[in-house]
């Protein structure tokens, strides 16, 4: 079999589409991972065999998903996709005798003996009568596959992406380059001074000349130290600014992405990408400047060696080439280890975040040990990869040091022979020894730069995946909210979440009249919150349209639309900041009168005023220290302070006692009159006064009407109210 094309998964859950990408390229067609990820609907939980089969059929494969015995798998056409370790996908691309060749997108190209192979593959089948049975996705290309051309290669966000950051500080870069050049020239003087001391000063017994040469060396050395200090401060200034710019631009892009992007990423993947910026910043500043210095030093000093003796130069050149080739020999293996390290660090970070966020639940269920073990097991995996990397680096460094030392010994030996034969002075020999010693650092820096540029390339690859994502405002909307009618009309809307087969909203047709209150009720999971998120444009409908007045909601400027919406969602966030900042949630100077009115209407004024620092009290992360009811009232005050045209409340008072809820409902009654209100609630007291009540069941509208009309129907709404009253009794 020809060399199998290997690609590594970018994210933790990208194994399925990455396997399909490898097989497609094996058959001669290049398909982007983004396209395959979309077809297979890969989400934060990955993808399943059904969706992976759909993606494979879509790109031109005949697909059979089957549970096979090992005997039948050995007869199956290769390559094929295997379900691996019960949570992963790999490609089986070749079998030789009892050795199975696997392309694992998380690890690399690996060979397994029969026993080890079965252990990984058969673990994907539970309660099988046959212990050597597993799940496979068999693929054969069709005529359609050959008829479609490969996708044109996407413009990569490579090192050109970094050019604007360098140009922004080009004057500082230029100053640093001049400083490094001056340092190199000062360094160049030392071997000639050393030769002069020996060949002129000592030979002619001129103590005065020796003093003069040594004094010159001292001043040059002090000049070098001064240049190094200046370079250090300039680099610190430059690297700090570039790092801030890089991470700031990353956050700018990250915050422009739709909510659906965050639904498909685990937290660790995003945190690791933030860490990737430190590699890039180091490459742009320290490494790139050092390599310029190193290349200049190597060229100048190599020329000086050639001036002294061509054969010494030849020994140096051959030794240096062998040294560099030895280092480059390990780059591919370092790349594999780096990818594995990224994957495990991402998983470990996600576990830590999960552990900290779920501490209350962990303690409630006495599972501290189990959760700690889960983290420890992941840490052990990471430790083993780090050990593997350390061993590789030690082998690389030991071999490089040996090659370098052998080169130095051979040059010293040959130079000594030339001195004995009278073809070289002792001073020239010492000068060459000094130059060889000085060249060790630039050569090491050159190799270090190769390593760091490889690391930065991998980091850029991961970051470019985010930079190439379309922003949620990339659909060209420019229109403002219509000035006349603000009725919201939903027509034939269908929606399902990415990675799900189930329609969450089905054929929704609905008119939400302006300046009226519309309530949405229904059982948990009926699609109430999803409908609100569709109106906020967190997601785009699979089918159907939403209008505001006579304008399509998708054509209205997104920021302008959200500026007009005051929202309280169930998963809304309270920041680690003051109560005032959490309500105002803007850098604009707070309007104290509006703020006081908002906290009064949300019935949290008394609580805030009793605090020692009143509204300047800093709240803990996610509102730590507040009750759920207090959090809800602060979130409600936030929505009221915004003074929106549209008020959207999702279970905004669900955690409040009856007295608090009654006060807030009474306070909001006049506030509701001046705006369009959409309320999701379970409690009768919250919805009964609504102008219109929508009953949702399994994502579809079952009933529409007022409280009185729906009770008279004795349908779904009536049963919901009846059950609630019975529970109350």
UniProtKB/TrEMBL annotation:
| TM regions (residue ranges) | 172-190, 210-230, 283-304, 310-331, 411-436
What's its membrane topology? Answer: Multi-pass membrane protein
Q: Which SMART domains match?
A: AAA (SM00382)
Molecular function terms, GO-annotated: ABC-type oligopeptide transporter activity; ATP binding; ATP hydrolysis activity; peptidase activity
One GO term (biological process) = proteolysis
Any one cellular component term from GO for this entry?
A: plasma membrane
Positions in coiled-coil regions? none
Residue span, ABC transporter domain:
488-723
Span of domain Peptidase C39: 9-128
Q: What are the entry keywords?
A: ATP-binding, Cell membrane, Hydrolase, Membrane, Nucleotide-binding, Transmembrane, Transmembrane helix, Transport
Q: What InterPro entries is this protein classified in?
A: AAA+_ATPase, ABC1_TM_dom, ABC1_TM_sf, ABC_transporter-like_ATP-bd, P-loop_NTPase, Peptidase_C39, Type_1_exporter
Localization of this protein = Cell membrane
Q: Which residues form the ABC transmembrane type-1 domain?
A: 176-455
Q: What is this protein called?
A: ATP-binding cassette, subfamily B
Instruction: State the species of origin.
Output: Flagellimonas taeanensis
